[in-house]
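Moderator note: this is an archived Q&A kept for reference. The question asked for a predicted structure of one protein chain; the sequence and the answer are reproduced below.
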Amino acid sequence: MPKFETIAALSSAAGCGGISVIRVSGPQSKKIAKKITNRELKARNAHHCNFFMKSTTKKIDQGIVIFFPRPASFTGEDVIEFHTHGSPVVIDIMLETIVELGARLANPGEFTQRAFLNGKLDLSQAEAVADLIYASTRSAAYSATKSLDGALSQHASGLKDKLIKLRTHVEASLDFSDEEIDLLENTEIVKNIEAIDTVITNLIKSAKHGNLLKEGFKLVFIGAPNVGKSSLMNHFTGEETSIVTEVPGTTRDPITAELQIDGIPIKAVDTAGIRNSKNIVEAEGVRRAWGAIEKADVVLHIFDGTKKWTDIDKAIKKQAGKNKKYILIRNKIDLAEKINDEKSTTVNVSALTGEGIQGLKNAIKKLVTEVGAAEEGVFTARRRHIVALQNAKAAIERAQQLPMHAEIIAEELRVAQDSCSEITGEFTNDDLLGEIFSNFCIGK
């Protein structure tokens, strides 16, 4: 177990409150606690104590102190938790005293980083701690909890074990062969490689969904001018997020708002109406609207139900339908005497009266949750996890290219194995660790 300095930080939220928790971790933790409390502390007992300043009898506060001896603590080191009254002044004096007695203030994420370095958590679990803290929806919290429990780690470790087993088999064929063997003839190895490819593909799909639950699905409202995009946007946010007027081209820059649909995080983007315009500013807004389609996870294509299907609508549908989750929305049904019979329409709504809005939300939810997977089995994932899995898949695909020689397959299996090890932190570097933990809050 690595040896570190003793660190301290406020682990509860800053500001006034009923109770605050100050965490101390490291070899001097128990010694510091004894000097502050003038008490011998029993492991995992809640002691009601007075807290004193260094070398004086001046009392700072009174509260609860708990000692968690190593290695059975969050960080794997001796840990002390001081539960004080939630006064910023008391917290400042307590931290000053703890530093005077030999600790230093912790860096962001340093407690969790020590838990990782001391083998209490793997890297994906450590990241899940931050994901759980910053979760903005129930779905994000549920999926982060699954990762904290080791769901992603188990998938990555299981995949790595398959790679090691197959790699051992392939390398053994090199040790006992005097000449190069075309492994295409070995159907067992070929089938195992194909099976691993399938496992990685499915895991990438789950990781992408978990990443969307963490970061939020990007939902883009797109359509011609004055079809009701901004009105629908305002229905979703519950406030006047976008300006609504009868003048075409009111929206120029994309307008973004964060919201939830039944606990699912959504980043909604209202865009400029698509049309040919000589106005430089409006034309730039239209260009950005087309660009928003490319970055969307879900495209809501709105058209005016009182008018005929236009060439612009056909162009939007053609562009938005490329590898996107796509919903075509007929708006203004309250005004339409005869509803346009565009066959691929998913939802009929009225942005004015609110008719059909709940049905639209249900359609969106069905697309983004993949039938409730968010709460039943999806773990939270980060972009680096997806990249690692994609690198592993690329290596496996290279291994399947003809001719399938043992040396090539063995090397690509090693690359895939190292990529999987990056997820849990078995194969990583200090720069990556610094980047990951610097994004944590102080005290965690």
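Archived answer notes: The chain has a mean pLDDT of 83.
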